[in-house]
Automatic annotation (TrEMBL), chain A:
Natural source organism: Paenibacillus aquistagni
One GO term (biological process): transmembrane transport
Subcellular location, principal: membrane
Cell compartments where the protein resides: Cell membrane
UniProt keywords, alphabetically: Cell membrane, Membrane, Transmembrane, Transmembrane helix, Transport
GO CC, one annotated term: plasma membrane
Protein topology in the membrane: Multi-pass membrane protein
Protein name: Putative aldouronate transport system permease protein
Record keyword Transmembrane helix present: yes
From TrEMBL, chain B:
Organism expressing this protein natively: Paenibacillus aquistagni
Domain of life: Bacteria
Official protein name in the record: Putative aldouronate transport system permease protein
TM stretches of this protein: 14-34, 70-95, 107-126, 138-155, 186-207, 261-280
Record family assignment: Belongs to the binding-protein-dependent transport system permease family.
PANTHER family: ABC TRANSPORTER PERMEASE PROTEIN MG189-RELATED-RELATED (PTHR43744), POLYGALACTURONAN_RHAMNOGALACTURONAN TRANSPORT SYSTEM PERMEASE PROTEIN YTCP (PTHR43744:SF9)
Membrane protein topology class: Multi-pass membrane protein
InterPro entries according to UniProt: MetI-like, MetI-like_sf
């Protein structure tokens, strides 16, 4: 005890001196790196305006916004906007739609794109494999506007291909754009058409990264193709699958605005099955001018997503630290 | 090991089905756009029209100014946007790749946090209409939400860290090069692949944008091509009403091959991307795969 006490005095003494000196090396370091720090400024300022000011704007959800008083002057509303939102039937419908569509999109796209990626690995001809990859990716690079045109060419009531084909079987034409019942299927198909190629290529890239020796050894041991896929390929790309699925799951309250707004052509009759949180926020803000409720819905979405992504990350860290996102 | 023939054939037929599914819709709208009106009246939209007619294209080219104007807006915003995006992203990503940078972890967190949390669309919209009044300006289709993605910054930062050896920077610093000089004489030339990749992503982002145009632009003269197409899908007459200098709109409307004009417009809006795609698809694919490897 005594010895440590004595020993600690000079150490403490020692600490004071460098402390006063570290100030200057720090400033010197700052000076040395000032140009590098200045280089980051445009980006930092941009993120401040584009991301951080809107984060502060969350207070809008707790205010009774009016254009005259502006963001700062408008009176506080407490949780009234949220109360109003959750008492309306919309809150349930948009949450249900967003979550269910995401569940369907995530699972269907996962299965399809893994299937494509696994089979693509069986194609030995590089040129042909390239050709397939670039055609599957084509739907991904076009805008949702074009997708809406493509869907329209199939679903137009009078002239659309689907109704004309139905007519061949003497089935009455279906008014696709005014009957909400069909839209879950339509949107799932459209989303898969647009997205499967993209994720398949990511999985395929992960698959080609696998060491070929595993397969050679397995072939020598007489493992079938199926065994090789399920016992080598899938386990080895599991980290990529986990990461991508996790990211998708944590965005379960987010939706692709274009898919739900453009493809149903903003048709009011389809809202029961096509309205998601994002389209709701847009319509409440632009068409109804209800700033309070639309920002309340936005906060609800952001807050849940934030909790989900932290939770999902924590869960994965528990299972396997390497797979975690951060 | 020899693969059985049936196995190979079934895999290829699976892929051919997929290929057809990816390509046929595009072919379909093209065929509709050149179908004759009588064919559409009789058979509807069909892969095998009974007559061919270029009336729709003639109609669109007759008064092409609206489409050209919209293309002008798109091209201007894309060029300006991509330049600014690359400028800001590279300048932000490079310093973060230097381990000894002061405040490095704070800045990284500042960037990363924007991926986790957002204020939502409403305050974002009000920021760019009230605080920074961009409504009905071309910059509204360049600045809000499109200039910098945290993901791209992280992607580029890891490229700098993995592909450029520290010794390169150190030796240049010993030779007395300033940080800016190191950046544009050494770092930029060594990072052209990642710059091209992010430039390509961002080009597609600006080219395909209609969301910002829908939110911030009320003036039809500033519509970009994607939003012009959006408007025309629900209401093809929109294209005419926009350019109704003439008082014979009624006449033109009566003669307009409505159904085919719509699809011809889609083809005109899609054409540049389709023609460019074979040339950039290779870079695009390698771009997504490098992005994915990082996660």
């Amino acid at each position: 005890m005594k010895a440590t006490k004595i020993a600690s005095i000079p150490i403490a003494d020692h600490k004071i001196q460098p402390a006063s000196r570290t100030q200057r090396p720090f400033l010197r370091k700052l000076n040395k790196y000032k140009w590098l720090l200045i280089m980051t400024l445009p980006g930092i300022i941009y993120l401040f305006i584009n991301n951080y000011i809107p984060m502060y704007g969350i207070i809008l959800a707790f205010k009774n916004y009016n254009y005259v008083d502006g963001i700062w002057g408008s009176p506080w509303a407490g949780f009234d906007n949220f109360k109003f939102l959750f008492q309306s039937p919309d809150a349930y419908i948009i949450t249900r739609n967003t979550v269910l569509y995401n569940v369907a999109f995530i699972s269907i796209n996962l299965v399809l794109s893994l299937l494509v990626a696994l089979l693509m690995n069986e194609i030995k001809d590089k040129v042909i494999s390239r050709f397939y990859q670039s055609t599957f990716l084509l739907p991904h690079i076009i805008s949702m506007v074009i997708v809406a045109y493509l869907v329209y060419s199939f679903l137009n009531v009078e002239n659309g291909l689907v109704n004309r084909l139905l007519a061949l079987f003497h089935i009455d034409p279906i008014a696709w754009y005014s009957n909400p019942d069909y839209w879950p299927y339509i949107l799932i198909i459209v989303n898969a058409w647009k997205g499967v190629g993209y994720s398949a290529i990511i999985y395929f890239a992960a698959i080609i990264g696998i060491d070929k020796e595993y397969y050679e050894a397995a072939t020598i041991d007489g493992a079938s193709k199926w065994k090789q896929m399920t016992r080598i390929t899938l386990p080895l790309i599991a980290p990529v699958i986990t990461t991508l699925t996790l990211l998708a799951v944590s965005g379960i309250l987010r939706s692709d605005f274009g898919l739900f707004y453009q493809v149903p052509m903003n048709s009011g009759a389809l809202l029961p099955t096509t309205n998601t949180i994002d389209t709701f926020v847009y319509r409440a803000m632009i068409q109804l001018g209800d700033i309070g409720m639309s920002s309340a819905a936005g906060v609800y979405q952001s807050a849940v997503c934030f909790v989900l992504i932290l939770g999902a990350n924590l869960a994965v860290r528990k299972i396997n630290k390497q797979n975690s996102l951060f | 090991m020899k693969q059985s023939r049936l196995y190979t054939v079934s895999i290829h037929s699976f892929f051919w089905l997929f290929t057809l599914a990816s390509l046929l819709p595009f072919l379909f709208i093209f065929i509709i756009s050149i179908s004759s009106e009588s064919s559409i009246n009789a058979k509807g939209y069909s892969f095998f029209p009974s007559g061919i007619s270029f009336a729709a294209y003639k109609f669109l080219f007759y008064d092409f100014t609206e489409i050209l104007k919209a293309y002008g807006v798109t091209i201007f915003c894309t060029i300006l946007g991509v330049i600014l995006c690359l400028f800001i992203t590279t300048l932000l990503a490079y310093p973060l790749s230097r381990m000894e940078l002061p405040f490095r972890s704070s800045i990284s967190f500042y960037i990363f946090f924007t991926m986790l949390f957002s204020g939502g669309m409403v305050p974002w919209y009000l920021t760019f209409t009230n605080i920074i009044p961009l409504k009905n300006t071309l910059l509204a289709m360049v600045i809000p939400g499109m200039l910098l993605s945290a993901f791209n910054v992280l992607l580029m930062r890891s490229f700098f860290m993995n592909s450029i050896p520290d010794s390169v920077v150190e030796s240049a610093a010993i030779d007395g090069a300033t940080e800016f000089k190191i950046f544009y004489k050494i770092i930029i030339p060594l990072s052209l692949p990642i710059i091209a990749t992010i430039g390509l992503f961002s080009t597609l982002g600006f080219w395909n944008d209609w969301y910002n145009c829908m939110l911030f632009i009320d003036n039809p003269d500033l519509y970009n091509i994607q939003y012009l197409m959006t408007k025309s899908l629900t209401n093809i007459q929109f294209l005419l009403m926009k350019s109704n200098q003439s008082n014979q709109v009624g006449d033109i409307l009566a003669t307009m091959p409505t159904e085919t004009v719509r699809m011809a417009l889609a083809i005109i809006g899609l054409a540049p991307l389709l023609f460019a795609y074979p040339f950039f698809q290779k870079y695009y694919i390698s771009g997504i795969t490098t992005g994915a490897v990082k996660g």
